[in-house]
UniProtKB/TrEMBL annotation:
It comes from the Bacteria. This is Transposase. Residues 83-102 are annotated as: Disordered.
């Protein structure tokens, strides 16, 4: 789709939005949320596919410390990681990096 067509389509869509009632807007909202969730799930699936059980990984926690460990399980949205200190974490695949094997 060309950028000119995209702009025109957005303008038409914006105009249509201005004329929608509450029921139509709520329906559109549900559709947008479903689509965003589907896109997020697809992204997570692609990111998780980079890892396998047994992979050495590292990630940075909210407090800035770096944790290293092994992927124990790949869940629907996260990877279960056992750190070298014996802690269990469920980590978003976007926050994981492969680490060199020990």
């Amino acid at each position: 789709m060309s950028s000119k067509q995209t702009i025109l389509d957005r303008e038409l869509f914006t105009e249509a939005l201005r004329h929608m009632g509450e029921e139509d807007l709520l329906y559109l909202n549900r559709m947008v949320i479903e689509r965003l969730n589907l896109l997020a799930q697809a992204k997570s699936t692609v990111e998780l596919a980079q890892f396998a059980e047994g992979d050495r990984v590292h990630f940075t926690t909210n407090d800035g410390s770096v944790k290293r460990g092994i992927v124990l399980r790949l869940n629907k949205k996260t990877a279960s990681v056992r750190t070298d200190e014996g802690q269990s974490w469920k980590v978003s695949p976007g926050l994981l990096s492969k680490a060199a094997a020990r």
